[in-house]
């Protein structure tokens, strides 16, 4: 009997939730932390990230800060600036999101 395992099996990623957060990290001197994108060298931005299923935006912000900077945001005061913007998802990225009805 041949016990070969097919290692080419891949699992589809779940669709992203079309809701994200942008986090501004600054110090007492009002210096802002920017991070350079690994996929676009020379492009600097604030910490950002998409919301996961069942997660509040505050939890999203805390998780993204930890993932992208290593900073434990639970040790700092986070403030929701109550700023909201809506944008169309670029066609090149739409495959990451569930189709609309």
What are the salient characteristics of this protein?
101 residues, globular, two-stranded antiparallel ribbon, single chain, 1 helix, little secondary structure, 12% strand
Describe this structure in words.
The protein has one helix at residues 57-69; strands spanning 20-23, 35-36, 44-45, 47-50. The strands form 2 sheets. It has a two-stranded antiparallel ribbon with strand order 1-4. Strands 2-3 form a two-stranded antiparallel ribbon. By secondary structure, the protein is mostly loops. Strand 2 and strand 3 (44-45) form a beta hairpin. The chain contains 1 helix and 4 strands, in the order ββββα. It has one domain (20-96). It is globular, with a radius of gyration of 18 Å. The model has no long low-confidence stretch (mean pLDDT 86).
- Radius of gyration based on Cα positions: 18 Å
Distance between the termini: 48 Å
Order of helices and strands: EEEEH
**Main beta sheet strand tally, sense and closure:** 2 strands, antiparallel
Q: In percent, how helical is the residue content?
A: 10-25%
Strand order of the largest sheet: 1-4
Globally, the shape reads globular
Query: Structurally, how many domains make up the residues?
Result: 1
Strand content: 5-15%
Mean pLDDT: 86
* Oligomeric state of shown chains: single chain
Task: List unreliable stretches of 5+ residues.
Answer: none
Number of helical elements: 1
């Amino acid at each position: 009997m041949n016990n070969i395992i097919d290692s080419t099996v891949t699992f589809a990623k779940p669709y992203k939730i079309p809701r994200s957060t942008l986090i501004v990290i600054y110090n007492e001197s009002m210096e802002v932390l920017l991070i350079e994108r690994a996929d676009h060298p020379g492009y600097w931005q604030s910490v950002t990230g998409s919301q996961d299923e069942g997660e509040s935006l505050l939890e999203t912000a805390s998780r993204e800060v930890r993932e992208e900077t290593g900073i434990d945001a639970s040790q700092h005061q986070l403030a929701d600036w109550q700023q909201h913007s809506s944008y169309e998802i670029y066609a090149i990225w739409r495959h990451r999101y569930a189709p609309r009805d």
